[in-house]
Amino acid sequence: MKDVEEAGLLKMDFLGLRTLSIIDTALALIQLNHGVKIDIDEIPLDDKKTYELFGRGDTIAVFQFDSAPMQNYMRALKPENLEDLSSMNALYRPG
Fold first, then answer.
1. Are the C-beta atoms of 59 and 74 separated by less than 8 Å?
2. Residues 52-78, mean pLDDT to the nearest whole number
3. In the chain, helix, strand, coil percent, each to 5?
4. What is the pTM of this model?
5. Which candidate, 81, 74, 79, 39, places its Cα nearest to that of 60?
6. How many CA atoms lie within 13 Å of 50's alpha carbon, on the beta-carbon side?
7. Which of 12, 32, 87, 91 is the most exposed place for a label (fewest CB within 10 A)?
8. Does residue 35 come out as left (phi exceeding 0), alpha (psi in the -120 to 50 range) or beta?
């Protein structure tokens, strides 16, 4: 990261193919085991229960939000929307 920045280039992180494959497999297993088909593009971004979960720090195994310090910050922040989560993630992991 630092070498790229020093060269004047912009470093961007994207979900890797492995991560996308895991998400795809998870969706297929949910449909197979529970009969529920989830369209990843239709997941609501304003789900109150999801933000309550983050606000309790119940984020074990949630990418970028699973460390103990981040869980403490989530408890203090009590996020209410995607912008809150995005901002906290950017502040906690500015690189």
1. yes
2. 95
3. 60, 0, 40
4. 0.70
5. 74
6. 10
7. 12
8. left
